[in-house]
Structure formats: structure tokens, C-alpha cells
TrEMBL record:
Record's protein name: 3-oxoacyl-[acyl-carrier-protein] reductase
Claim: NADP is one of the keywords in the record: yes
GO molecular function (one): 3-oxoacyl-[acyl-carrier-protein] reductase (NADPH) activity
Family membership: Belongs to the short-chain dehydrogenases/reductases (SDR) family.
Alphabetic keyword roster: NADP
Length: 260
């Protein structure tokens, strides 16, 4: 299959990001994967998995909250592949704590990675795509927490509301360049992030590990937890040519946890 273009996926070493990277590779994109230094080995293994699908792939270790590192990553990708067609700003972190137990440090870390990190990816991908003049797809990771606030997740929800606002603003600016900007807004998806929430909930309430996941599962119209592949299927569509008339949206994929 000839290449459909080059896609960057941040926070791709595990979870939803890894699922998206593998799915976009199956769709025919060459893939530049990003994560932080502690996950560099997993990134290297993922590059091999993508290459086994007969696509080009490269690993780019960078912290998305640091402007210089995002700028350098974009330059590295353009040097290797000659451009960028899809940016998936997936990297994100969660702090599970009440407002009283959320420190300024916790708040700043969540906002820096989730909100500033996504802004920087949207900024440098947009600049590159505009200079190329061939349109593109910019995609962010919102959440059900970007539609509705919830207990124990104040910093996280605030950061995801920021991503929804950023998605709308970037769509407004970039549309005339043929660039669409959308976000996926998952509900509970089976990754290390939800395992961390489950563990934190068990510690705070004295309940058995697994209780939080079961509670969430039972509370939903579709009583299940998503897999990263479920989310990757939506991203595959947003990244495709067929989605050309969709922009500025944060698309819910949440088992009915929240109705827009
Ligand atoms: P995860 O914790 O399994 O993976 C997140 C990845 O991001 C990790 O590999 C981590 O190392 C990387 N990362 C963290 N900080 C980074 C930084 N500064 N620079 C680059 N990479 C960094 O989580 P996940 O569940 O796969 O989440 C992926 C995205 O989906 C996140 O933005 C998350 O908020 C969002 N999301 C997840 C769920 C869910 O239920 N799992 C629901 C809604 C939204």
C-alpha cells in the first residue's frame, strides 16, 4: 500500500495512543511516535510493531509540555518524512484527588501536560501544515471529563475543558487552510490511567481493587469499558479523507456515560 501520509501520535508508548498508532499504521500512514524518556523502550518496541505492518516508523522522545521539545520533534519528523499530515495530541495525565487534596503542583502538572502540551502540538502542527499547503488533520484527546466535571478530577476536567476550547479555536483559525481540528472524548477506557484511578479509589475508600471499574461499568447504558481499539476506530475516521466536513468537534465515545 502506498503511504497515506505521515501521522504523529504523542503519548504513544501505551494505552490509547499505542492503539491509535497501530490503527493508523494499518490504515496506511507512516507513524512518528512520541513519549517521555521513561517509556523510551516501549516506544522502540512499538516502532518495530509498526514496521512489521510495512510502514515507516520512528520514535521521538519528548515532553509535550516543553515548547522547545515539541518544536524539535516537529523538525525531526519533517526532516525524516518531508512533512506531516496528521497530528494526534494524545498524551495526557490524571490526578485523582479531591480539590482539597490537589496541590498547586498537581494542578500545574496536569494543566502543563494536558492543556499546554496539546496547545503546543496544535501550534507546531498547524504552522507546519499551513506552510505545506496540503491541508491536514489535527486531533486532540478530550474526555467525558471535558464535557462534564466530576468528583476527584478537578484539574483533569479543567484541562480537558481547555482542550475542547482549543479545538474549537484552532478549527476556526485553520479551516481555511483545509485543516480540520477535532478531538475524541472517551469515557472509561481500559488503560493504565483507569487502573491508577481504580487503585486511588480503593486506597481512599478501603474497597477492593477493581471496585471502581465495576461501578463505572454498571452505571452506563452500555455496561462495558472501552478498549484502546474502540477509541482508535474513531480516530481512524477523524484522520481519514471521509471526515472532511467535520471540524471543531469533541466527539463523544463513552458508552452513553454522558449525552451531548
Ligand atoms: P496512559 O496513562 O495509559 O497513557 C498516557 C501516555 O502519555 C503514557 O504513555 C505517558 O507516558 C504519556 N505521557 C505522559 N506525559 C507525557 C508528556 N509530558 N509528554 C509525552 N508523553 C507523555 O493513558 P490513556 O488512558 O492511554 O490516555 C491517553 C489519552 O486519552 C489521555 O489524554 C487521556 O486523558 C485520554 N483519555 C483517557 C480515558 C481513559 O479512560 N483511559 C478517558 C478519556 C480520555
Amino acid at each position: 500500500m502506498s503511504s497515506k501520509g505521515i501521522a504523529i501520535v504523542t503519548g504513544a508508548a501505551q494505552g490509547i495512543g499505542k492503539g491509535i498508532a497501530l490503527r493508523l499504521a494499518s490504515d496506511g500512514f507512516d507513524i512518528a511516535v512520541n513519549d517521555i524518556p521513561t517509556n523510551a523502550d516501549k516506544l522502540t518496541a512499538l516502532v518495530e510493531e509498526i514496521k512489521a505492518k510495512e510502514r515507516e516508523a520512528s520514535a521521538h522522545v519528548a515532553d509535550v509540555s516543553v515548547e522547545e521539545q515539541v518544536k524539535n520533534m516537529m523538525e525531526e519528523v519533517v526532516k525524516i518524512y518531508g512533512g506531516v499530515d496528521v497530528m494526534v495530541a494524545n498524551a495526557g495525565v490524571m490526578k485523582y484527588a479531591s480539590i482539597a487534596h490537589t496541590s498547586v503542583g498537581d494542578w500545574d502538572r496536569v494543566m502543563a501536560i494536558n492543556a499546554r502540551g496539546t496547545f503546543l502540538c496544535f501550534k507546531y502542527a498547524g504552522m507546519q501544515m499551513i506552510s505545506q499547503g496540503r491541508g491536514g488533520r489535527i486531533i486532540g484527546a478530550c474526555s467525558v471529563g471535558g464535557k462534564k466535571g466530576g468528583q476527584m478530577t478537578s484539574a483533569y476536567c479543567a484541562s480537558k475543558f481547555a482542550i475542547r476550547g482549543l479545538t474549537q479555536s484552532a478549527a476556526s483559525e485553520y479551516g481555511r487552510h483545509g485543516i480540520t481540528v477535532n478531538s475524541y472524548a472517551p469515557g472509561t477506557t481500559d488503560t493504565e490511567m483507569v487502573t491508577y484511578m481504580d487503585k486511588s479509589h480503593a486506597e481512599l475508600t478501603g474497597s477492593a481493587p477493581g471496585t471502581f471499574k465495576k461501578l463505572l461499568e454498571k452505571a452506563m447504558p452500555l455496561p462495558m469499558i472501552a478498549t484502546p481499539d474502540d477509541i482508535a476506530g474513531l480516530v481512524s475516521f477523524i484522520a481519514s479523507k471521509e471526515s472532511q466536513f467535520i471540524t471543531g468537534q469533541s466527539i463523544s465515545i463513552n458508552g452513553g456515560m454522558y449525552f451531548d
